[in-house]
Every structure is written in structure tokens, then in C-alpha cells.
UniProtKB/TrEMBL annotation:
CDD domains: tRNA_bind_EMAP-II_like (cd02799), TyrRS_core (cd00805). One of its GO terms (biological process) is tyrosyl-tRNA aminoacylation. Its EC number is 6.1.1.1. The lineage of its organism: Eukaryota, Metazoa, Chordata, Craniata, Vertebrata. One of its GO terms (cellular component) is nucleus. GO terms for molecular function: ATP binding; tRNA binding; tyrosine-tRNA ligase activity. Belongs to the class-I aminoacyl-tRNA synthetase family. This is Tyrosine--tRNA ligase.
Length: 536
């Protein structure tokens, strides 16, 4: 018998039963009266959106489990792959990888749903760019921007949009787009984590100003990761990847925070509560006979009580979760074992190069540092003024705007290669986190990156950001967009020098590191003519 056949034979749940299914295990519901009113008249239309950024991990089973509840309650469910949001959120997904990551998300989310028995034919799958680039939607973005304050937009995205020292305008647009999605997806309710609450209240405040209805908002609690904090794609030890091998799952669970008797911030218990129990309505703790044998729990509260009273040992709990989790992951691993999806996975999430072996003299317990391009703080700069150095004929002293409160003073040896008038008001590429140093009595606060010819006579050309870039925009190397740069590069560690050894100009005049392009959100960084040259 198919999974849906038995369900079809069961009597349809009434409004109160539907309400209980929809709201169980949620932390908060905004609009409870409206929710019940809709359920008394018809089926609820609801959507869940996910920005296609970092790789989905096992915590994604939490919303998947709730989606199963929504379907049991007869809801019409839409899943939004928010590709445009992924780009707007401080370019967590670069434009060049956006399509690949969206395809990866589509495959992996559908595989997760299938692994927990959710019939895909009952769901509607939509990409943000399917409708967010339309004339009507774009006009509503402008309409919304005319009534939303900068304060409210920043506040709404504070828990969701990546917070940086110099925020981009795109991050302020993010909450408005998420609010408009409710109208354009024609839903009654939006479902998300409690970290979305400020965006949900933002939507409730501003959608009516455009003549659109206020929606119901359903919020899941934030599930602790294995370290006891929020499970995050960017914190490797806090999460289990959906494609992790069984031995990796065992290793990560073994290290997981699961203190005897402690039920607070316990990621192992939370996973049982929010994923395993709703799916099976029971959980089996596997134990050797000498410790009492296996015990089946049909209520989560009883399991939590036994764990708090140390009747259940953390080791037995972890082993039991490992078995149950691998049953969920096995069909996903099998699906992604085909060459096509392996290729998609590696293309969507290029693996950063591993750190070189520790140098001679490294102690046994010390960790070698990753020497990767994301450690460099490279930005687009605009040259505001150029003057000859008072004490050096070959040096310019420039004032360069890099999006900070004051322009930086930069000394560069370009007098013999670039006329002063060609630098004035030009966009350049500036390395911003070198330790400031005095050059003939003038402190230089950065380095203008330039292409140099290989042969003689020597030629030098400043690197060119794509047209349309603004001062302060980040420049990154393809595949290394996610890391945080060092606050200041330590001269003794020679991080820049090690990376710079692999800087080259391609035959297409594109700046590269190990054949990976230098990029901004608008495209590639290049030079005018020095093909095959070095960069310094």
C-alpha cells in the first residue's frame, strides 16, 4: 500500500485537529484567530522559503517535519527556493554560483522530503526569480521602498541578514522582498524559524500600506547545534551534513554537547523532539540488556524526564539518534551517489584548497593556518586625489574612498607607469588589511593591486573593477566568498605574500588566483592589456 493510501482512508481532521497539527512544536504563532477562522472555512495556504546559500544540513529536517504536519492537516504548501534572497544577503551566493546552488537545493530538499515519506506531488515548488523579476513585483519593491524607513529595514533583517561593518543596500531590500513574497505566492501564512520574527512583524506592518492583507506567521524554535549553539552551515562542528558518511556522523555525534541530566541547549534531544518524534510518534533508546535493554518512548516528555533524571545515558541517546538519523540519510546519500549530482555538488560548493603542511618548527599540538584568499580584505576603491610624494620622485600619495567614514591615505609606486590624470577619480582594487607602514615618512593604509608585465620594458596597469561598482564593495576570489577577512595581516606570517605568489592575469586579462577569478557582485576584475602578467 502506498503511504498516501492509508491516509486517504482515514477521516479528514476537523478544524481543531488541523490547528493542533499545524501548531504543534511551534514556538510562536502570530494571528491565531485568523488561522482558526480560515481552517473553519477552507484549507490553509502556506509557504516556507529557504535562501539557497550554504549546504543544507540535518537541521533542515526540522522544517521538513513541520511541512509533513501541514500536509497531514490538508494545507496547500508552497516551497520557495529564494535564490534572489541568497544573492541579496551580502552575496552569500555569488551570481556565478546562484543557478548551481538553487539546483542543488531543489534536489536535496526533495530528497529530504522523500526520505521522511512526504509525497512531492502535494507540494508546489517555486524559484524566487520565477516572479521576483517581473514588472509588477519590481514596481511593488519601489512602492514599498517609498514607505519603509531605513531603520525599520535594518532592524527587520538583523537576525537573518549577515551583519557587516559597511552593510550593502541589498541587505536592506531583503525584508521587503520576503514580505512581498506572501502576496505574490497568494498564501494565507508564512512559516519559518523564530529568527524570522522581525521580518514577519515588518510584513504585518507594511503590506497593508500597499493594500495587501496581513498574513498569519508560524515560527519554529531555533534548534541547538551539536555544540549547543544554533546549528549553522558556517560552523562545521555544529552540524551534520546531509551527505556526511556514517563514520562522520558517528564522530560528530560523539563530540556533541549532551551533558548527563542537562536538557538545556541539548542539540541531540532537540533533534529527537522536533524531527524523530513527529515523524514516527515514538523513539527507541537502544541499550544493552545489562543496562535495561531497549526502551520505546511514545511521548517526548517522558524521554526528556528520564534523561533529566539520568535514567537515560548520553551515550545510549547518541547511539540511538545515530541509527535513526542514518536511516533518514541513507536514501539521500544513495540519490547523490550518481555522477550527475556529484558533479553538481562540487560545482555549487567548490572545495577550498587545504592548508599547506605545518612549517618546520610547528609544535605538535598547533594547527596550521589556512592560507586562503578570503583572509584578504580586498575592496573597490575610488581615487579622490593624487599628489606626488614630497620626498620620493617615484611615489604617489593618494586619497582613496573605500566606503569608510574617511578616505584612506595610500602610497604607491606608480609615477613612472600611470599618469596622474589617469588615476584621478578612477576605480581601483585596494588591499585594505595590510599593517599600515610609513613610506618615506607618509603612512600608507593599503595597497593598490596592479598587473605587471613579465618581460622588459616593465609595464604596470592598476586592476579594474567591473563598471558600475561602488567604493567599498568587496572583491573576492571565486569559491571563497563566504569567509571573514583577517582584521590585520601579520607581517611575520606572510599570508599575502604566500597568496600573491599564485596571482596571475589570464589570457582574457582577468585577475585570478590559481585560475579562480577575482570577482565583485557585478562581475570579474580585469586589467587593460597585460595578458599572462603577475599581480602585486
Amino acid at each position: 500500500m502506498q503511504p498516501g493510501a492509508a491516509a486517504a482512508m482515514e477521516p479528514a481532521p476537523g478544524p481543531q485537529e488541523k490547528y493542533q497539527l499545524i501548531t504543534r512544536n511551534l514556538q510562536e504563532v502570530l494571528g491565531e484567530e485568523k488561522l482558526m477562522s480560515i481552517l473553519k472555512e477552507r484549507e490553509l495556504k502556506i509557504y516556507w522559503g529557504t535562501a539557497t546559500t550554504g549546504k543544507p544540513h540535518v537541521a533542515y529536517f526540522v522544517p521538513m517535519s513541520k511541512i509533513a504536519d501541514f500536509l497531514k492537516a490538508g494545507c496547500e504548501v508552497t516551497i520557495l527556493f529564494a535564490d534572489l534572497h541568497a544573492y541579496l544577503d551580502n552575496m552569500k551566493a555569488p551570481w556565478e554560483l546562484l543557478e548551481l546552488r538553487t539546483r542543488y537545493y531543489e534536489h536535496v530538499i526533495k530528497a529530504m522530503l522523500e526520505s521522511i515519506g512526504v509525497p512531492l506531488e502535494k507540494l508546489r515548488f517555486v524559484r524566487g526569480t520565477d516572479y521576483q523579476l517581473s514588472k509588477e513585483y519590481t514596481l511593488d519593491v519601489y512602492r514599498l521602498s517609498s514607505v519603509v524607513t531605513q531603520h525599520d529595514a535594518k532592524k527587520a533583517g538583523a537576525e537573518v541578514v549577515k551583519q557587516v561593518e559597511h552593510p550593502l543596500l541589498s541587505g536592506l531590500l531583503y525584508p521587503g522582498l520576503q514580505a512581498l513574497d506572501e502576496e505574490y505566492l497568494k498564501v494565507d501564512a508564512q512559516f519559518g524559524g523564530v529568527d524570522q520574527r522581525k521580518i514577519f512583524t515588518f510584513a504585518e506592518k507594511y503590506l497593508p500600506s500597499l493594500g495587501y492583507a496581513k498574513r498569519v506567521h508560524l515560527m519554529n524554535p531555533m534548534v541547538p547545534g551539536l555544540t549547543g549553539s544554533k546549528m549553522s552551515s558556517s560552523e562545521e562542528d555544529s552540524k551534520i551534513d546531509l551527505l556526511d558518511r556514517k563514520e562522520d556522523v558517528k564522530k560528530k555525534l560523539k563530540k556533541a554537547f549532551c551533558e548527563p541530566g542537562n536538557v538545556e541547549n541539548n542539540g541531540v534531544l532537540s533533534f529527537i523532539k522536533h524531527v524523530l518524534f513527529p515523524l514516527k510518534s515514538e523513539f527507541v533508546v537502544l541499550r544493552e540488556e545489562k543496562w535495561g535493554g531497549n526502551k520505546t518512548y511514545t511521548a517526548y516528555e517522558a524521554l526528556e524526564k528520564d534523561f533529566a533524571e539520568q535514567v537515560v545515558h548520553p551515550g545510549d541517546l547518541k547511539n540511538s539518534v545515530e541509527v535513526a538519523l542514518n536511516k533518514l540519510l541513507d536514501p539521500i546519500r544513495e540519490k547523490f551517489n550518481c555522477p550527475e549530482l556529484k558533479k553538481l555538488s562540487s560545482a555549487a560548493y567548490p572545495t577550498p584548497s587545504k592548508a599547506k603542511p605545518a612549517e618546520k618548527g610547528t609544535t605538535k599540538n598547533s594547527e596550521p593556518e589556512d592560507v586562503i584568499p578570503s583572509r584578504l580584505d580586498i575592496r573597490v576603491g575610488k581615487v579622490i586625489s593624487v599628489e606626488k610624494h614630497p620626498d620620493a620622485d617615484s611615489l604617489y600619495v593618494e586619497k582613496i574612498d573605500v566606503g569608510e567614514a574617511e578616505p584612506r591615505t595610500v602610497v604607491s609606486g606608480l609615477v613612472h607607469f600611470v599618469p596622474k590624470e589617469q588615476l584621478q577619480d578612477r576605480l581601483v582594487v585596494l588591499l585594505c588589511n595590510l599593517k599600515p607602514q610609513k613610506m618615506r615618512g607618509v603612512e600608507s593604509q593599503g595597497m593598490v593591486l596592479c598587473a605587471s608585465s613579465v618581460g622588459e620594458p616593465r609595464q604596470v596597469e592598476p586592476l579594474d573593477p567591473p563598471a558600475g561598482c561602488c567604493a567599498g564593495e568587496r572583491v573576492y576570489v571565486e569559491g571563497y566568498e563566504g569567509g571573514e577577512p583577517d582584521e590585520e595581516l601579520k607581517p611575520k606570517k606572510k599570508v599575502f605574500e604566500k597568496l600573491q605568489a599564485d596571482f596571475r592575469v589570464s589570457e582574457d586579462c582577468v585577475a585570478q588566483w590559481k585560475q579562480r577569478n577575482f570577482l565583485t557582485k557585478l562581475g570579474t576584475v580585469s586589467c587593460k592589456s597585460l595578458r599572462g602578467g603577475s599581480i602585486s
